[in-house]
Amino acid sequence: MIKAHQINYLHRNFHILDGVDVSLDYGEFLAIVGPNGAGKSSLLSVLANEVRGKQKILFKDKPITDWEVRELSRHKSKFSQHNSNEIPLQVKDVVMMGRYPYFDSQPRQEDFEAMNKMMYETDVYHLKDREYNTLSGGEKQRVHLSRVMAQLQNEIAHKLVFLDEPLNNLDIKHQYKALEIIKNFTAKANSAIVVMHDLNLAAQFADKILLMKSGKVSAYGTPEEVFTAQNISQAYNFPCTICGHPITNNPMIIFG
Description:
Number of helices: 9
Helix content: 25-40%
Structural class: alpha/beta
Shape: globular
């Protein structure tokens, strides 16, 4: 799906990313985790071709820089950590922005269907006629998740979504609903790269974990391989204990 070797990214001679390797297969959910300032969001931006690092990134065996912009936007989408809080549009119009790669002037029937489908799934359909600026932070977050996922409602195989902290401001119910949407997406041989802070949710939902610290990869593998007390304590400089989840048997991290 996407491969990059030795990603290096500097800003004013400061190494933000240093020798990072990433390889993602079809149908995988990769969670990028690590402390503040580890380079997680920067890595996502480089992989999504928003920031140019000193490396070649292959997306579907083709350099991502060789893709035509409109065509690429039908194969991959990105949820950013920081979205505007002031958008003078109704919720349905914000979600429809995800369909812009598919029409020039007027949305088609399939665009409305994709918009409505994702508004239902993200639990914002009842807000569709509300002004975006009147929503709570969590509601706005769900609107943008709806927009990003609506963008990838098409018949193309092996799509990729990048999500930078999509669980911010969400209550427990909607955190789980968001992760279930991502899991259902990857179950159809699509892939997802998600920046997360909740290690226990990452252990429960992700297929692979990339643990970062100071712009480098500290550990990479399955949740069982990465989430050891030694790996996590070293990355976060904070003690933890690992035990099995009583229901799923996934690693469960207890800090302190």
